[in-house]
Write a structure and sequence with these properties.
This protein has 188 residues and is α/β, with parallel strands linked by helices. The protein contains six helices and eight strands, in the order E-H-E-H-H-E-H-E-H-E-E-E-E-H. Helix 4 (84-90) links the parallel strand 3 and strand 4 (102-109). Helix 1 crosses helix 6. The radius of gyration is 16 Å and the shape is globular.
Amino acid sequence: MAKVTIINGNPSLTSRLSAIIGLTEELLKKENIEVHHVNVAELPPEDLIHTKFESEAIVKANALVAQADAVIVASPVYKASYTGVLKTFLDLIPQKGLAGKIILPLFIGGSLAHLLSIDYSLKPVLSALGARHILGGVYTVDTQVARTEAGGFEIAEELRTRLEENVAELVKETNLRLQHSELPQGLS
């Protein structure tokens, strides 16, 4: 069974991004994918700020990333980039810690003005961590995830379709990579 770890770089776990992550997880589970979460906001702030690589919480979070076949990196856009709390965690992932993994970025922002933030701010850092197969990702705006009166969220159909397509690509690429790695030596 393929494993995906979702790194949630949002300081708030009850935002519109959480609805996108929830739908993404639902889609992955329909494909029989094992899903794990690293909610960076739940990691000890002192461990993040003081780069405590040996911290139990950081070691556990990094183990989830290491054991994953694919990683989803999710963040709201703050000041034209991903959040600082996400960067503090990315700084704690071991050098080449994303090598061999399929990566899917998920970003949400207030406007289309930061549409390229995935390409210009996140992808270079992911590449520095060894990621070589980074999917295009999904950038959405706040208005595509509406809060309901009941306290939930309603995701626009266009966004739902893009998430379905991107998750399908992630699943396909991950399964291909797993099949390739299972071939006997000399046949790959």
